[in-house]
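User: quick one, fold this
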Amino acid sequence: MKKLILFAVGFWLLLLIYPAWLGYQIWEQSGRDELPRRADAIVVLGAAHYNGRPSPVLKARLDHAAYLYREGFSDVVIVTGGRAEGDEISEAEAGERYLGNETNVAGSHVLTEIEGRTTLESLTNVRAIAEERGIDSVLLVSDPLHSERVKRMATDLGFDKAFASPASYVSLNRSRETKVDELVHEVVSLTVYELFDR
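Assistant:
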């Protein structure tokens, strides 16, 4: 009986401590901008668009990727994201158009991943593109709180080097409640990924 009680206590402690530890790692990573001298490609994680017009979140990511491109961190930008139900074009295609029309990133330097419906699907497809083109290092652009998860996934998928340079959302004026919701979402998503590889 004593062993059973100890096991139960240990189990519940682990259930509390593990998500708390992940939350700490996610929060720590969110404050880091890991700019390498160079990366083989800048990878922009997709987000919503409205009939081809990037949402504020996607626009912030694309603007940051364009800045990194202009500053010479890479000559290649890969935009990701499939089509949501009802969309005529994918998130990646909306991103490609925006980069070409609004930021003057050369179209020949932009690659698209148009099938992914989740972060893992998009990065798995990016890995396939990378293998075809000899891309070994990536500079990942997404939300600050998303950075830990995308870095882990990219590393697990076999990239030699994965760096995170999150888009700034200062202009979006996100509330504290929204940030807490995002943190909880990332803890749950990272836990599911770590436990079930999905």
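User: anything notable?
Assistant: The CA atoms of residues 149 and 193 lie 8 Å apart.
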